[in-house]
Design goal:
416 residues; 73% helix; 2% strand
Length: 416
């Protein structure tokens, strides 16, 4: 069947190459663009397999490795998410999001498992080679947008929101900053895989430096911290030759548990009084985390149900801090911390399953025989997790799609 698919693979590969070049520019215009891109790639993959008569065999349950610990923990975790709908504050809202989340998760499993059936070896090699260039084009596009006064993004906003749309600021590129930092690791791995010259490591350092410069220009502290942690992870795996990789997931678990304990026992007012120069966004997060932990303690074992953060009683109450901000909601829509959000919505049962799933993901990555793949994949996963600990709603579809696409492009390089 591999031969019969050759003539049908070209348009899939060309689409993937097109999106490799345009992912970052699209995210500059709208961070939500990554979701339809991920969905389109899945539909193309399904259509290709259907035309080749391979879709039914692919969907057979016998093709899935149920003995895999990552698969097992993920299945149990999402089963718990589904059960939490029954005690959720808004069950129908929770159910709709559960379906959307399952679709994104299925997408990554499907694309990762069957990419070799829908993309030829020659196309994979071509995709691998163009990723660094695509990353650099994205960086150039963003810098042009910044120094032109956000012309394109402002034009797009005026078209869809009317002439009264608020002016664009650097804060409107938070989603771009996060996706840019994630996509960088596929470009780095591509150089490491395809370049055997003496300047390979110089190019890798240059790519990482370019990524860091762009992220700092975006002024997104969460992405900067996440990238620093990811770079440290990348270097750590290479220096230790992956002999101590177990320390990476252990550190993530320890940090996650420490975050929960800190949220329970901290006093935001005392912290702000001690550090009066703390940024307003960080001060607001302290109050968010304190409130979320307080509400999580009301239902510590089961939580408030999937997506319950948006409807927590008292979450819309305004808080004000002199010289910082006025009348901000104490829980705007989510706790801005993935582990704390899991505890608030899915209880301690959900936290245990979530951390077990993350730990298994690291273990799965480190089974690879390629040292550079382990370094890049560990860095990407750390990058994604740290951003989730500081910024976005863990269930936002665009954020899940960003992770899906970043790992998908990384996996394409791996199969060269």
């Amino acid at each position: 069947m591999q031969t019969s698919l050759a003539g049908k693979k070209d348009y899939v590969a060309k689409t993937i190459i097109f999106f490799a070049y345009t992912l970052i520019p699209f995210s500059v215009v709208s961070g939500f663009a990554v979701t339809p891109i991920q969905q389109l790639l899945l539909l193309l993959a399904v259509f290709t397999l259907h035309k080749a008569g391979q879709l039914k065999p692919v969907l057979s349950p016998h093709n899935y490795k149920y003995g895999n610990n990552l698969f097992t923990f993920a299945a149990v975790f999402f089963a718990w998410c589904f059960l939490s709908i029954f005690w959720s504050i808004k069950p129908m809202d929770s159910f709709r999001y559960f379906i959307a989340i399952k679709f994104v998760v299925f997408s990554i499993l499907f694309l990762l498992a069957y990419k070799d059936k829908i993309i030829s070896t020659e196309s994979l090699q071509k995709i691998s080679r163009i990723l660094p260039l695509a990353f650099c084009i994205g960086a150039a596009f963003f810098m042009a947008e910044v120094y032109s006064g956000f012309t394109l993004k402002q034009l797009t906003r005026n078209i869809f929101s009317g002439g009264d749309a608020p002016p664009i600021t650097i804060n409107d590129f938070n989603k771009t900053a996060c996706f840019f930092s994630l996509f960088m690791w596929a470009a780095v791995f591509s150089v490491a895989t395809n370049d055997n010259g003496k300047t390979k490591w110089l190019k890798i350092v240059a790519l990482i430096s370019l990524g860091f410069i762009v992220i700092t220009r975006l002024e997104n502290s969460s992405s900067v911290l996440a990238m620093l942690a990811a770079i440290a992870t990348f270097v750590f795996v290479l220096v230790t030759k992956s002999r101590a990789n177990i320390l990476i997931p252990l550190s993530i678990v320890i940090i996650s548990v420490a975050t929960l304990l800190m949220s329970i026992y901290m006093d935001p007012a005392k912290i702000i009084a001690k550090y009066p120069d703390i940024p307003p966004s960080a001060a607001h997060r302290l109050y968010i985390w304190d409130f979320a932990a307080e509400k999580a303690m009301d239902k510590p074992l089961l939580g408030w149900g999937l997506r319950g953060s948006r409807s927590i009683p008292g979450g819309k109450e305004p808080i004000s801090i002199s010289n910082m901000f006025d009348n901000r909601e104490i829980l705007p829509s989510h706790p801005h911390n993935s582990t704390l959000q899991i505890w608030l919505e899915l209880g301690l049962v959900g936290v245990v399953l979530y951390l077990a799933m993350i730990f298994s993901a690291f273990v799965q990555i480190n089974r690879s025989e390629s040292l550079i793949f382990k370094a890049a994949a560990n860095a990407l996963l750390v990058n994604y997790i740290i951003i989730g600990m500081l910024s976005f709603d863990i269930w936002r579809i665009w954020w899940l799609s960003a992770g899906v696409l970043a790992f998908f492009y990384l996996s394409l390089v791996r199969t060269r």
